[in-house]
Amino acid sequence: MDIKLINIGFGNIVSASRVIAIVSPESAPIKRIITDARDGKQLIDATYGRRTRAVIITDSGHVILSAIQPETVANRFVISKEAHGDA
Hints:
By secondary structure, this protein is α+β, with helices and mostly antiparallel strands. The chain has helices at residues 28-39, 70-83, and strands at 5-9, 12-15, 19-23, 43-46, 54-58, 63-66.
């Protein structure tokens, strides 16, 4: 089994196989997901104090905040899959 890792900024890495969605934090439903995750101790803040630009939702119910754009995270996800021959 080959584990693929995605850099989400500032040296933080997420397992690509666990990612369900990469979304922008602007909408009210996503803000509610972030609040619920914080209340349930399922929030991981990987922004290092910077503005949240991407919200990564995992299959375990964890919500990860990143300071890089969702498109950038998604591109890293696609590039990683192509590099490993999964495309």
